[in-house]
Amino acid sequence: MRLSQMHLKTLRETPAEAEVASHILLVRTGMIRKLVSGVYGFMPLGWRSIRKIEEIVREEMDAKGGQEIHMSAVQPAELWLESGRWYAYGPELWRLKDRNGRDFCLGPTHEEIFTDIVRNDISSYRQLPLNLYQIQTKYRDEARPRFGLMRSREFIMKDSYSFDKDFEGLDKSYNDMYDAYSRIYTRCGLNFRPVEADTGAIGGSNSHEFTALAEVGESEIAYCERCDMAATVERADVKDDPADSSQMLPMEEVYTPNTKTIEEVADFLGLDKKQTIKALLFVKYDELGEEDGYVAAFVRGDRELNMIKLVNALGLPEHAVAFADEEKMAAATGCVGGFTGPTGLHDCTIVVDSELVGMKNLCAGACKKDYHIKNVNYGRDYKGDIVRDIKTLKEGDPCPVCGAPVKHTRGIEVGQIFKLGTKYSEPMGAYYKDENQEDKVIVMGCYGIGITRTLAAIVEQHHDDSGIIWPVSVAPYHVIITLIAPDDTVQAAAAEKIYSRLTEAGIEVLLDDRRERPGVKFKDADLLGIPVRITVGRGAIDGSVEYKLRRETEKNDLSIEDAIQAAIQIVEKEKKGM
Ligand code: ATP
Ligand code: MG
User: Fold this and answer.
1) Distance from the CA of 414 to the center of ligand 2, in angstroms?
2) CB of 200 closer than 6 angstroms to any ligand 1 atom
3) Contact call for residues 511 and 473 (beta carbons, < 8 A)
4) What is the pLDDT at residue 368?
């Protein structure tokens, strides 16, 4: 491709709204173009890299026996009502009506659709296992679209669904996908880590997130350097501190004026935060979005509540639980803002962190303004409707597996895999007949890759101050020939020769034949991040060109032939990304 003819508009300036490197660079290189918030289009270079990622994904899915299909983005509400997700999915589901008032949504994911296909098409154990996938546009009306392709409202996802006779079959399908995902992200040049994850709105039992490590990532990961524990902070178990065997002391009300926070009350009474109980107050919403009761959650004063564990404990989707208006909740339950404790509350669901059960003589709010109660004990003084681990695993806390201090790091979730079991097949009636002609429920898994988010993650990990540094496997082009003086016949002939030789060898080449200053061309070549640059300038008359890799600072003067061979060699070696 000749740059003089390519539809390309690069920007010198950083777009005002772009905060992270990948967003800035994908916009500045003209690879993506915003239409409205969270909705992007792809220009020629951007689309080429997207297709490369898709091809890697296809190869690895096919290698595991996946069969590609393509379903509609428009999905009828009836299927979502059957699975129970029409309400549970909440405001992220992009709903629409047709002219007759019938409800539809734009698919955020396709479990219902694929389950529907299989329940109609599969009848015998002979047809299982089956793995179907698609690469398709998804819609999620995200509350805060941001970081360009990282969290958008329209994005491309590869989604696969596996269908097995039993749970052993599912284990194999899941492990196959785990392997395929590891190969895919390796081939895309990502430094990634698979971690245990919460199952969220998709559901099911086990799940792993594949996380590309990056400071700007929205996933927080807890991991252990001594054992192989690695989980999202949302998911990570926390070991309860050992129970305290002290004698229970009598409860004692104490005057604690203006001590609304745990810090304030602990300071005022000269206590460690570990000797206090922290209260967090929430309101629940029902399927129609109406308020549906209150929740008080209690953790030890030095702990932090884990919102995902709390909603899971309540058996509710995340959007159905929000911080309560304290005044309204006070009237209904007897809580008192800043002075709420587990004793003296009524008419609300009390969720108690499991650790509190073994703690003795803690200080909690008295549900009375300016008062706390000392020596509050679980069992004797209060009980939980639900008792569970609802706390967050913080950096430095003991690893739930081996006890060593855990570390935290951040990453971008580029994919997630789930053991769904019978979560969809059961309610939607996806059955098969086994060897004895008995009806059995199909066991499912589902597996997603954010194709567009993966592109952003690659840029996030592969750039410098001058621009992108594409891994060869996903680069929009492999080589850029920077022709310094297009009007110089010797230079032009040398550039054309290199261009055709490389193209014939199957290398994807950009020829910068624009009538621009050399400085502009070098800047653009660095910004676009094409892995190999061959500069054809004055040396051409002696058959010499400059050869440089984008990822290295070193430049070499090579003969035209040597430059061609060097380019072919490196592209052949790195094209597959393995
Ligand atoms: P997140 O927690 O980031 O909202 P999710 O867990 O809801 O993502 P999944 O349902 O697991 O996402 O979807 C599979 C993959 O699709 C994700 O791993 C991610 O790579 C991609 N993805 C999800 N939401 C978005 C989005 N809003 N924009 C771009 N990619 C997305
Ligand atoms: Mg996910």
Assistant:
1) 8
2) yes
3) no
4) 95
